[in-house]
Design a protein that fits this description.
heterodimer, A: 115 residues, four-stranded antiparallel β-sheet, B: mainly beta, 10 strands, globular
Chain lengths: 115, 115
């Protein structure tokens, strides 16, 4: 069955520290891959997405993610976290073919940033 | 409109009452999704309208839940005989195509509280 796993429910980092949020998926073929962020009091916003080509993709707010086919992973990274990055982060995958292209979502990782 | 809008933003109702939630997608967007997000949890897929194809209703939790969409316009999610466990934020999203590579744009959500 198709699934997305975000192993870390909650992560706390210090401001200025590096960040990596994990995402693993189970899918029949390489899917489209997304990271969304949900900031307190705000709606869900797309951070970045992978379709094809370079496996390291750049997104907004200084985030990047690397697609690793051998590990079925699409981990999100940021070299230096800012207090405003505290939010809920969701990984999602989408089908490249077939009649139903709805996204499959992970349960999210809550990020807290210490000053 | 400029983005996805949802109404009402907040709804408090008594157990057993019916409620209707509305979503106005971005003009021209073919696909429309409804999700439920319980407090502190991830996105729970409810229903997916995919253009002229039959909607994917596989996520609706019970027959008390139903949704309609006319063409590529407004959608309404109806919950009949509400229960306390229906309390959640209901999110609507739309995308320009039904392809799995297309970004979903989210509305601000409707917070439903069932007393």
């Amino acid at each position: 069955a198709q699934s997305v796993t975000q192993p870390d429910i909650h992560i706390t980092v210090s401001e200025g520290a590096s960040l990596e949020l994990r995402c693993n998926y189970s899918y029949g073929a390489t899917p489209y891959l997304f990271w969304y962020v949900q900031s307190p009091g705000q709606g869900l916003q797309l951070l970045l997405k992978y379709f094809s080509g370079d496996t390291l993709v750049q997104g907004i707010k200084g985030f990047e993610a690397e697609f690793k086919r051998s590990q079925s992973s699409f981990n999100l990274r940021k070299p230096s976290v800012h207090w405003s990055d505290a939010a809920e982060y969701f990984c999602a995958v989408g089908a490249r073919a077939g009649n139903n292209r709805k996204l499959i979502w992970g349960l999210g990782t809550s990020l807290a940033v210490n000053p | 409109g400029a983005g996805v809008s949802q109404s009402p933003s907040n709804k408090v109702t008594e157990k057993g009452k019916d409620v209707e939630l509305r979503c106005d997608p971005i003009s021209g967007h073919t696909a429309l999704y409804w999700y439920r997000q319980r407090l502190g949890q991830g996105l729970e897929f409810l229903i997916y309208f995919q253009g002229n194809s039959a909607p994917d209703k596989s996520g609706l939790p019970s027959d008390r839940f139903s949704a309609e969409r006319t063409g590529e316009s407004v959608s309404t999610l109806t919950i009949q005989r509400t229960q306390q466990e229906d309390s959640a934020v209901y999110l609507c999203a739309s995308s320009s195509t039904t392809s799995g590579d297309t970004e979903q744009f989210f509305g601000p959500g409707t917070r439903l509280t069932v007393l």
